[in-house]
Amino acid sequence: MKKRGKVVRDTQAGSGLISINGEQFPFELEGMWKSDVAPRVNMVVDVGFDAGGGVETVQVVPEGQLAREQAEGAVREAKLRSQALGRELAGRFGIGTLAGIAALVCGWFLLNTIDVRITSSYSNGLSFWKLLGALNSPADIAQALSGSGSGAGIYGFFAIVALCGPMLPFFLRHRLAWLGNLAPLAFMVLVCIIGYSSLSSSMHQAQGMAAAFGGAQAAAMAAEVASSMMREVLRAVSLGLGAYLSLIAGLYFAGRGAIQFLSSRA
């Protein structure tokens, strides 16, 4: 039988002493010590016992093994804590709420909402969060594609608020709190409307400038060019997995919130 202990007295002045779970056991260098290095105070050792319970062998535990065991222990502890936290959150908010929010987090932050085909062999994608950054600063669209934009700004703030909306009924005991479940879907729809409005406004401005400098004929040409560009953009852009996942989660929360709101009024 082996136990893990620590050297509390070396063998320079006689018998050594090992502490194991508060108990102390003497050991000798000759015959018992099985390592190539001399025993030192605070050295971690594996102690083998004979049938009578006396110390039979003492062997140093390598530092690499200790570090590995500590890392594995930290991972186990983190896993246990995360499982306990998961059970606590599931008991408080429910599996459906947590799964829906996880889907929104993946759909908004991790997965691409749109895929942009730049060339026949190369395409890039934008997550919903990066789209908010492009909407916040339209001049940084190229930087948003590369992931180095200036940030989502006020749109990012409202995105976080909308993400927390489905949790509102668990903190506010009022039937209106169930309408917080509509926040993610409403925010996504609002972003689509603002994006389309911003794009249309840019086209109208271009047509207005063309009309101011070249008259009606130039405005007509600008409108044709803008229409052609829009068709090319629509052909190059496709919805990504993030868009579908976010839409499903948004519809789930909206449906649940509407049902709970209407049933609580009855």
Structure description:
Keywords: Membrane, Transmembrane, Transmembrane helix. The chain is α+β, with helices and mostly antiparallel strands. The protein has two domains: 2-61, Nucleic acid-binding proteins (OB fold (Dihydrolipoamide Acetyltransferase, E2P), Beta Barrel), CATH 2.40.50.140; 94-265, Up-down Bundle (Butyryl-CoA Dehydrogenase, subunit A, domain 3). It is 58% helix and 15% strand. Strand 4 and strand 5 form a beta hairpin. Helix 1 (63-93) crosses helix 2 and helix 3 runs antiparallel to helix 5 (153-164). The protein starts with a strand and ends with a helix.
Give the arrangement of secondary structure elements.
Layout (H helix, E strand, L loop, with lengths): L1 E8 L6 E5 L2 E5 L16 E6 L5 E6 L2 H31 L1 H16 L3 E4 L5 E4 L1 H9 L4 H6 L6 H12 L18 H54 E3 L1 H25 L1
Antiparallel strand pairs: 1-2, 1-4, 2-3, 4-5, 6-7, 6-8
Keywords: Membrane, Transmembrane, Transmembrane helix
Identify the notable features of this structure and list them briefly.
alpha+beta; transmembrane helix; elongated; transmembrane; membrane; OB fold (Dihydrolipoamide Acetyltransferase, E2P); 266 residues
* Average residue-wise pLDDT: 82
- Helix vs. strand class: alpha+beta
Strand order of the largest sheet: 3-2-1-4-5
What fraction, in percent, of the residue positions are helical?
Answer: 55-70%
The top-level CATH class of the largest domain is: Mainly Alpha
Examine the coordinates and then state which fold CATH places here, giving the name of the CATH topology of the largest domain.
Butyryl-CoA Dehydrogenase, subunit A, domain 3
**SSE arrangement, N to C:** EEEEEHHEEHHHHEH
Shape: elongated
Contiguous low-pLDDT stretches (5 residues minimum) are: none
The biggest beta sheet is recorded as:
5 strands, antiparallel
CATH architecture type of the largest domain = Up-down Bundle
Number of domains: 2
User: How much β-strand is present in the residues?
Assistant: 15-25%
| Beta strand count | 8
